[in-house]
Every structure is written in C-alpha cells, then in structure tokens.
Amino acid sequence: MNLEAWNTGGIMDQRPLAAPSAPDLVSPYRSFSRDEWAHLRADAPLTLSVDDLTKLQSINDPISLDEIVAIYLPLSRLLSLYVAATQGLFKATQRFLMAEAEVKVPYVIGVAGSVAVGKSTTARVLKALLSRWPNTPKVELVTTDGFLLPNAELERRGLMQRKGFPESYDSAAILRFLSDVKAGKRAVSAPVYSHLVYDVVPGEQVTVERPDILILEGLNVLQASRLPKDGTVTPIVSDFFDFSVYLDADENDLHRWYVNRFMTLRQTAFRDPRSFFRKYAEIGEDEALSIAEKLWTGINLPNLRENIVPTRQRASLILTKGASHRIQQVALRRL
C-alpha cells in the first residue's frame, strides 16, 4: 500500500489551520477549544456508526458520534497530513543518501495517560478511523500491558503493589519490539496480557506484520529515562514515535472514573470464575468501595503523580477531558 496515495479522497484538504483562541507565544503548544478544533475537520468523512462505537468503547468510558466528529475526525485529518509529510521526508533522505529504496517504515503513534482516562477507547477509535482512510492502510494496535513482567516475577521482585509503574515492565522487550517494527521486519511478535487473569498469558503472542501505522497504547509510553553517567546510549520508547497523544483529565475525575469502573466490574467481569478479582464480586458493596479507594490512593494515584503526569508535556497532542468524558480542549505541539 502506497502511503503517498493517502492525499486523495478529500481527507487531505490543504486549508490552513484555524488560529487558537488564546495564543501563548511561550507555550510549545497551540491550544484549541472544542469548537475551534471541530472546525478543522474540513471534509473528512465520518466512517464509523453507532454500532461501531459500541464495540470500540471501554467500560465506563462513554463516547458518542458527536465526539468522533468534533475531536477524532480532525485528528484523523491531521494525521493524514503528517503521514504524507513523513513519507516525503523519508524519500528525500533516501535521495540525499543516494540509497536504494528500503522496506516500508511504519508510522508509529503513542497513546498515553492515566488508568481510567480512556486510552483504550481512544486507541481503538484511532485504529478504526485510520484504517478507513481512502487507501485502507494496514493499522495495528498493541498495548504495553503485554510487556508487564509476569506476576511470578513481580512477586519475586516485590513489585506486585507497583504493577503499572515503569519498573514493572520489561523495558528491553518493548524497545526490541519497536526497533524491529521500525526496521521493517516482516513479522514481529509481542506478548499478550489478560485483564481477566491479571497476568501475561504464557506462550500467547500477537504478531505485527509490516503495518503502515502502529499504535502503541500504555501508561508510561512517554516516560523519559535518566541520563547515564557513563555516556552509554539509552534509547526510550518515545524515540520510536512519529506522533503521540496524551489523554488528560482532572485528578478528581480520574479518581471517580476509576472507582466507578471498579464497582461496575464487580457486576460483570469480576464474576467470571477465572477472574483474578473474583473475590471482589463476593464481598459487600461498602467493603468493595473501600478496596477501590485504597487501590487508587495506594497504587494508581502515586503512579499518576510520579510517572504519568510528568510525561504529558512530551506529547505531540494533549486531549483534555471534562467531567463527563467529553474532550473540552486540544493542545497541539508547535512544529
């Protein structure tokens, strides 16, 4: 599939971006209200139905067609422009180097943000929209959950109460995966994580085969590493990104969404006999609520403050949600 051909079919409309409502010459971002951003959709077509959205959204993360039209269609249009420009830059570099044509290099998009903010829904919506571009590019979605260390290893290292923190991941495996994908290897595999059993599934893998676009979703994908004192090379996950999205929300809203999701899961997934959290479906509501609060304050809130929020300003795009999960503001990094 020729990525350069994506500039056909209307989605690549070249009209200039609207000016932000309150330009800040100091900030590296241009900020847009919801209405200003929605105007940038231009003539990007709506390719998702209500039924599609029902399949794409996560528990307690409502999303409407209005949200798709106002937020995600403009983003899809922007990405179509960025992908075409990146391909042009790649070809220019090849000409400069007088090099023969190399294998296709995927465009990699990172999606980051807190637990319960709606990363999974955003990643799935993006995949659905991008794969419906005029020339139907091949879009793959991988989550970093599969790169968590197995529970047995976390127990051995005393990290079970820090699951989701940077040290609970096999960082070297993530970097190898992204390096192989960017190198254009034909088939690159990633481990699979089960939220039902709350662990990596032994022997199970998902294979990525030279996608046009790869979306990598996870809590800490924008995490920076500490500079080494000995001068050794230390690549980080975001080094492989062409574009990144950070889902942002007020801390109090994140707290409420997390607890509500936990209580909803008690009536659904937690009731499965195979569920790691089966015990929480069998206790009283007050006790379950108390446990959800402890999980938030003891694990998820510290991770949010120490490791996730500090990466927000490294994103190409920040989508800020209001209390109802509707995105109220968009901030696009200046080039």
Descriptive notes:
The protein has helices spanning 34-39, 50-56, 65-96, 119-130, 151-157, 171-182, 251-266, 278-281, 285-308; strands spanning 29-33, 107-113, 139-143, 188-194, 199-208, 213-217, 243-248, 317-321, 327-333. It has 9 helices and 9 strands. The strands form 2 sheets. Strands 1-9-8-7-2-6-3 form a 7-stranded mixed β-sheet. A two-stranded antiparallel sheet has the order 4-5. It catalyses: (R)-pantothenate + ATP = (R)-4'-phosphopantothenate + ADP + H(+).
Tell me briefly what this model is.
This protein has 335 residues and is α/β, with parallel strands linked by helices. The chain is 36% helix and 17% strand.
Spatial strand arrangement across the major sheet: 1-9-8-7-2-6-3
Strand content is 15-25%
Structural class category:
alpha/beta
Number of strands: 9
Instruction: Please bin the fraction of helical residues.
Output: 25-40%
SSE pattern, N- to C-terminal:
EHHHEHEHHEEEEHHHEE
Oligomer: single chain
What best-fitting shape do the alpha-carbon axes yield? Answer: globular
Please tag this protein with its features.
single chain, 335 residues, alpha/beta, Rossmann fold, 7-stranded mixed β-sheet, two-stranded antiparallel sheet, 9 helices, disordered N terminus, transferase, PRK/URK, EC 2.7.1.33, coenzyme a biosynthesis, cytoplasm
